[in-house]
């Protein structure tokens, strides 16, 4: 799917932004005491130095609630005014009810359509494209989109090839119509034939939970790192180029590049291929690891806090992940109420 986001004349933007990570920091040295790995290997192969891990009693809605409250406050919007709430995640509180519905209740968003969206680490990009469509069409006036995951809950902590890569966290954005600026276009895609390379096989209707699925590790995340690496380096470039072309923009127009934070080598490769200057690239994978759907909003929040997101600047975001899926968005940043 590809398209300009301004065709019907409606401008939609992010008008508030918030994020939240758990308190617990897990360092590479601590991981080295758990599995056969080292700080040196993890830093050299991934760029990750530490990640945040949710407490046993903390679920996704607990991470999402503070992020959502911050986003609403920044936008100057009351929870009661939210009419659409999408939570992009692969680690909801439970299979059902949706974390969207749970979060809407906890926020007091009584009039919101609320649901979850599953697109792996690309979930946030899919969700903002969907919210954009609903706000631009007039179905929603005030949308709240949360991207977040607590992947630590589905990791096999004896598998060094996955457990060093991921962390927990959530980000949230309010999306509303604006007078000018805002989203210029999106490009989203999926290739289900690659789904086998990154999956949690059990617990659904294909392999319902059973003593065997538990003993076989079917409820853990499984990944073919090399295949995902190849896919990631390819689509981060092709998706970004596609959305830029669709919006009649070039990479030279991009002020801030916010790629999915999976691995610094993947980010460096994409930035180089695209021709983005290193100083325009937002990187926080060193502190958070791969937070899946939380990654892009957490990176946006960092960039905003560092003063790197100013009204009028062009922001290119690209995510990729399980599905396999990918998605890009091009946004002319507008001042959020909280960031004037
Ligand atoms: C996982 C990843 C970091 C592995 O890096 P790599 O350079 O490709 O490493 P390889 O898979 O070639 O493995 C090299 C060796 O390191 C070993 N290894 C894997 N994890 C290790 C770890 N944590 N510590 C030490 N050694 C490790 C492997 O067993 C392998 O050993 P072998 O050669 O004896 O078989 C990399 O493939 C990657 O980032 N893939 C994409 C993952 C991703 O982004 N997933 C989420 C997408 S949303």
What can you tell me about this protein's structure?
By secondary structure, this protein is α+β, with helices and mostly antiparallel strands. 32% of the residues lie in helices and 24% in strands. It has a 5-stranded mixed beta sheet, with helices on both faces. Strand 5 (84-88), helix 4 and strand 6 form a beta-alpha-beta unit. Helix 8 packs parallel to helix 9. 52% of the residues are buried. The structure holds coenzyme A.
Please name the defining characteristics of this protein.
340 residues, alpha+beta, 5-stranded mixed sheet, 14 strands, 32% helix, binds coenzyme A
Order of helices and strands: EEEHHEHEHEHEHEEEHEHEHHHEE
Our measurement of the CA-to-CA distance between the termini, rounded to an integer number of angstroms, reads 33 Å
Provide the low-confidence segments as ranges.
none
Largest sheet: 5 strands, mixed
**Global shape:** globular
């Amino acid at each position: 799917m590809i398209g300009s986001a301004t065709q019907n004349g409606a401008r939609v933007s992010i008008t508030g932004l918030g994020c939240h990570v758990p308190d617990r920091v897990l360092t590479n040295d601590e991981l080295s005491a758990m599995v056969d790995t080292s700080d040196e290997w993890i830093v050299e192969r991934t760029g990750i130095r530490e990640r945040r891990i949710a407490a046993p009693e903390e679920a996704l809605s607990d991470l999402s609630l503070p992020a959502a409250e911050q986003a609403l406050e920044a936008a100057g919007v009351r929870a009661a005014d939210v009419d659409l709430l999408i939570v992009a995640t692969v680690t909801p509180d439970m299979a059902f009810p949706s974390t969207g519905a749970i979060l809407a209740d906890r926020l007091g968003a009584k009039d919101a359509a609320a649901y979850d969206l599953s697109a792996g680490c690309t979930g946030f990009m899919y969700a903002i494209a969907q919210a954009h469509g609903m706000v631009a069409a007039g179905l929603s006036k005030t949308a709240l989109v949360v991207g977040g995951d607590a992947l630590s809950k589905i990791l096999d902590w004896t598998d060094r090839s996955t457990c060093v890569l991921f962390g927990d966290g959530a980000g949230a954005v309010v999306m509303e119509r604006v007078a000018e600026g805002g989203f210029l276009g999106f490009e989203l895609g999926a290739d289900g034939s690659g789904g086998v390379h990154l999956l949690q096989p059990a617990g659904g209707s294909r392999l319902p939970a059973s003593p065997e699925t538990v003993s076989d590790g079917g409820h853990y995340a499984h990944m073919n790192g090399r295949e995902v690496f190849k896919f990631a380096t390819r689509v981060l470039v092709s998706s970004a180029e596609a959305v830029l072309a669709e919006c009649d923009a070039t990479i030279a127009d991009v002020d801030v590049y916010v790629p999915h934070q999976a691995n610094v080598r993947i980010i460096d490769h994409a930035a180089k291929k695209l021709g983005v200057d290193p100083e325009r690239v937002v990187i926080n994978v060193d502190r958070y690891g791969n937070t899946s759907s939380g990654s892009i909003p957490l990176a946006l929040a960092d960039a905003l806090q560092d003063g790197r997101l100013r009204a009028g600047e062009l922001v290119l975001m690209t995510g990729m992940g399980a599905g396999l899926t990918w998605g890009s968005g091009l946004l002319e940043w507008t001042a959020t109420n909280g960031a004037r």
